[in-house]
Amino acid sequence: MAVSSEQLAIFGGPKAITRDPEDIFAWPLITAEDEQAVLEVLRSGRMSGNDVSKLFEREFADWIGSKYALTYPNGTESLRAAMWAVGTGAGDEIICPSMTYWASAAPALTLGAAVNFADIDPETLCIDPADIEHRIGPRTRAIVVVHYAGHPADMDRIMSLARAHGVAVIEDVSHAHGSLCHGRKCGTIGDVAAMSLMSGKSFPAGEGGILVTDNREIYERCIAYGFYERTGAPSIYNPVDLAITDETLRRFAGVPLGGYKHRLNQLASAMGRVQLRHYPRRISEIQAAMNRFWDLLEGTPGIRAHRPTRQSGSTMGGWYHPRGLYRAEELGGLLLERFTEALRAEGFQQCQPGANLPLHAHPVFHEADVFNMGAPTVISFGQRDVRQGQGSLPVSEGILETAFDVPWFKKDKSDVIEEYAAAFRKVAANARELGAT
Ligand SMILES: Cc1ncc(COP(=O)(O)O)c(C=O)c1O
What we know:
The protein is of the alpha/beta class. It folds into 2 domains: about 1-25 and about 280-355 and about 395-435, Aspartate Aminotransferase, domain 1, CATH 3.90.1150.10; about 30-275, Aspartate Aminotransferase, domain 2 (3-Layer(aba) Sandwich), CATH 3.40.640.10. The protein contains 13 helices and 12 strands. Helix 3 (about 75-85) crosses helix 6 (about 215-225) and helix 8 crosses helix 13 (about 415-430). The mean pLDDT is about 95. Pyridoxal-5'-phosphate (PLP) binds near residues 100, 101, 103, 146 and 174.
C-alpha cells in the first residue's frame, strides 16, 4: 500500500486526513420540520401538557414494536422507574455491567438496592453472559443489559438465564435505538426497556427518556410511580386519564408512589415525533457509512470492528459513539495511547482510548450513605455484601487499553470515509516507528 510508506504526521509527515468533512459528523439533524413542530407547542403554551407526549409514545411504541411507551424527563429517570416497576426495593440486588454510564446502575441505590457488577465480553463490550449466573442470589431482582455503543448484547443467553432464575431483564437502550438483535429490535426482548433521548444520542429529542414494555403490570406500576396525572385522578393540566386498571395501584391515584414527577417537556416530544419520522432512513445511511469504514479496515493488524457479523441478523442501530477494538499484541505491543496520539496527528482529533470507565470500584457503590443510615447503602438493608474492588473485573478494567474512538459518520460519503480508513491503516503499518517492539 503506497500510503503505508508515508511518514507519520506525528513525525512531520503529511496528514492522512485533509478533506473538509462538511456535514458528515453533524448531529442531531434539525430541519424546518423540527422547528415548526417545536414552535407549535411553544406558541400553544402546552409545554407541560401530555397530549403531544402521548402521540410520541404511541408512535415510538409502534416503531420499536412494543405495546406501551412512557416518556421521561431523561433516560436516568426511565431506568429508575424500570427498576422499581420490576420490583427492586430495599435490600434487593441488581446485576449490571461495570463498563457503562452510571445511570444504568446508580438509580438502584436510591431504591435501597445494591449493584452486583458483572464484567463485559471483550468482543461485544456488553455484559458477559458467562459472568451473570454465579451473581444471582435470592434477592436479585433484575439484570440490566446495556447494548453498548449500539452493539446488541447476547440476549438469547441472558433471557434464558433470567427465566431460569425468575429474574427480570431491563434493557438499557440508550446507545442502541434501532439496533437489531437477531432480527428483533433491542428494547423488545427483555421485560422492559428504558433509554435516553438526549441530544448527543443516536435518537435525539433534545433531552428526555422513554420506557417501553409489553407488560401491562410494569406499565401501570410506572404510571403509579411517577405519572400522577395518568392515575385516574383529576389534575391541573390534563383531563382525567384512566390508564391504571390495577385496583391496588388506583388507591394511590393522584399522588405518585415514587414521589417523582415523570413528565417530559412537550417541546422535546414534538422534536421526538419529527426525529422518529426520519430515523429509519437516517440510521440506514449511518449503517452504510460505518460498514464502509470497517470494510476498508478489514484485515488491518491491531484493530477489529465492533460490530456483529452480517449473517447474524444483528445490527448497530445508529452506531452511537462507535468504538474499535484494539489488539496490541498484533502491533508489537504498541500502547493504545500512542496509537491514538498518532491518529490525532493524522487529523482524527477526537481519537481517544477507552470507553466508559468501570463503575464497580467507584466510591458511590462502596461507601455512599444515600439514606443517612450510618452505613453504606449497598449494605444498609441487610443484603449480602456484593462490593468488589479493583482487579475483580479484568475486561472492564482493561478498557483503556482495548477500545478506542472511531469516527461516527452520519453520511455515506466515500471520499471522506476512505481518508479516515487510510489514516488508521497508515498508523497500523507504521507501528514500529511509534515504539512497537
Ligand atoms: C448507557 C446509558 N444509560 C443511561 C443514560 C442516561 O440517560 P440520560 O442522560 O438521558 O439521563 C445514558 C446517557 O446519558 C447512557 O449512555
